[in-house]
Amino acid sequence: MVIWSNAKFSPAATKLLEEGVAGHRLVRSAVPNAAILAGSPPDPAMAEADAAFGQPDAGDCLRYPKVRWVQVTTAGYARYDTDAFREGFRARGAAFTNSSSVFAEPVAQHVLAMILAFARQLLPSHRDQLADRSWHMNERRYSSRLLTGQTVLLLGYGAIARRVAELLGPFGCAIYAIRRQARSESAVRVITEADLTRILPQADHIVDALPDSEATRKWVNARRLACCKPGARFYNVGRGTTVDQEALVEALRNGPLGGAYLDVTEPEPLPPEHPLWTAPNCFITPHTAGGRDDQDEALVRLFLRNLGAFARGQPLEDRII
Predict the structure, then answer these.
(1) Are 251 and 297 part of one and the same domain?
(2) Cross-strand pairs, 261
(3) Domain that residue 18 falls in
(4) How does residue 182 score in pLDDT terms, banded at 50, 70 and 90?
């Protein structure tokens, strides 16, 4: 089997990949992909591949009929999420997998960390330490909150949102999740978009885990933000394109939002002069929620597990198509 890859890994992960594909032929792209959000150029070397691992050009995946399986090194897959791509792969019985299981745990833990940071007033106390080191004991104690009994609304219910719900389980939150079809889930009340305006005014925390697509761009808009509960906190670990950022700044400055945490923005990097940097109670990290010190090795291990399953005709992890 010929495996094409343009993934740029650490030396340890590269060695793991090379050893793990022994018995197959590994074809390296001449142009390694170092900026996964930007995509990759076409590569004629893919023409001989049976499988691709990394961030292949979507056109190449369709152009070369020998390709029977593609695994991307991200949870998001917007450039492959088209009717032409899905129909083309299904027509020839090809498989497409992402790496959502690698990133679901760190992103979910990141979200939980920020929810707790807001609830326990860690962020303003840290600001005090960096500024005048004033001692706001009573103010901080009486503005701290318990998550117990609070309401969390998850926008999207993929691997990341499901793990967020699991981590929140011990805190006794009421958890809602929105997706296209409302199906019963353990400890999570799944709703459709039609119920959103009823649930938004109840939510203390709104977690955006939506992918980028035509249907989700600026999905969090001024009208929906206006429905939020006064003081609600908004978190985005999906894609920056899913939020009308001007409306978000307005909702932070003039209500109803009490705070926001953003790991993704539009564009990235966020320009230093962008108003989100100075919006009230807005905290930003540079797309690091999915980070983990063993990321490259975890991506390779997932691919190798799927490689074995693919060779044996068994189900693949994180399968999309």
Answers:
(1) no
(2) 235, 283
(3) 2-98+293-312
(4) confident
